[in-house]
Amino acid sequence: MRATRAFVEQALHREGLLPNKNLGQNFCVDEGVLRQLATALPLNGRTVLEIGPGLGGLTEQLLAAGARVYAVEKDGRLWDFLRRDLADEGLTLIHGDCLKTDYSFLPPDFVAAGNLPYCITADIVTMLLTMKPAGMLLMVQREAADRFFARPSQKNYGPVAMVSQLYYRAALLCEVPPGAYVPPPTVTSALVKLEARPDAPQESPKFLLKFAAACLRMRRKTLYNNLTGTPALKAVLESMGLPADVRGEALTPEQLLTLYRRVNEN
């Protein structure tokens, strides 16, 4: 099994590798945690995009669940290690930056998974939302996990919370302590499952993310000031029963969607 302290430490020593802090490399050594993540959605026969396979701990569990895995690894050392050490007909390894890779080969019902590097979690989640996978299985910093569940006017309520809640039902599977990693991070992590909502909007998440960011450009300013120049905004707010001085952070995800639709009708 790859998700053990002995395997990770021996592999790093044998390959002469040091975890790259700049790439957020913290390898999970709790097999049970990774199995829980890989079995949170039915994956048998499905295509999974794995972000940052590292030493292959989660990859192994995804393959065991019957998934066809495309794993994108930025670190050439780890990509070469996996190429030699984890040969599987169900696995395709891609050497590249996950934020710059062309994913046009993925089917519409693919699932995204990964132990995401803390330093670029927000960028990766935003990218995945625009790709609209059928589901996501993510290991992230607990603070990042909380953003999926944030409610209006809370400090961590932002475009990711607003848009993800329109398209997905999120569930917090468990917390993961620092000791479950080599090397241990300084924060607690969490497993999050996101499953596509059957009533998700038809609009592209990309446009809603952009609109949400505009509504929250200056959090302490009113929505009207943030969307200066938007035609008939006052009339739209009035039609929605919202005060003229409402702030973007006060909008529910559903109100954001309604506002987006009505603004674009005028």
Radius of gyration: 20 Å
CATH topology category name of the largest domain: Rossmann fold
Extract low-pLDDT stretches.
none
Strand tally:
9
Mean pLDDT: 95
Give the helix proportion (percent range): 25-40%
CATH class of the largest domain, named Alpha Beta
Number of helical regions? 11
Largest sheet: 7 strands, mixed
Features:
266 residues, alpha/beta, Rossmann fold, Helicase, Ruva Protein, domain 3, two-stranded antiparallel ribbon, elongated
Blueprint of the fold:
Layout: H1 5-15, E1 27-28, H2 31-38, E2 47-51, H3 57-64, E3 68-73, H4 76-85, E4 91-95, E5 111-115, H5 121-131, E6 135-141, H6 142-146, H7 159-167, E7 168-176, E8 181-182, E9 189-196, H8 205-215, H9 223-226, H10 233-239, H11 253-265
Parallel strand pairs: 2-3, 2-5, 3-4, 5-6
Antiparallel strand pairs: 1-8, 6-9, 7-9
Helix pairs in contact: 2-3, 7-8, 7-11
In words, what does this structure look like?
- The chain starts with a helix and ends with a helix.
- The protein has eleven helices and nine strands.
- The protein has two domains: 5-196, Vaccinia Virus protein VP39 (Rossmann fold, 3-Layer(aba) Sandwich), CATH 3.40.50; 205-265, Orthogonal Bundle (Helicase, Ruva Protein, domain 3), CATH 1.10.8.
- The strands form two sheets. The protein has a seven-stranded mixed β-sheet with strand order 4-3-2-5-6-9-7.
- 36% of the residues lie in helices and 18% in strands.
- The chain is elongated.
- It has 266 residues and is α/β, with parallel strands linked by helices.
- The mean pLDDT is 95.
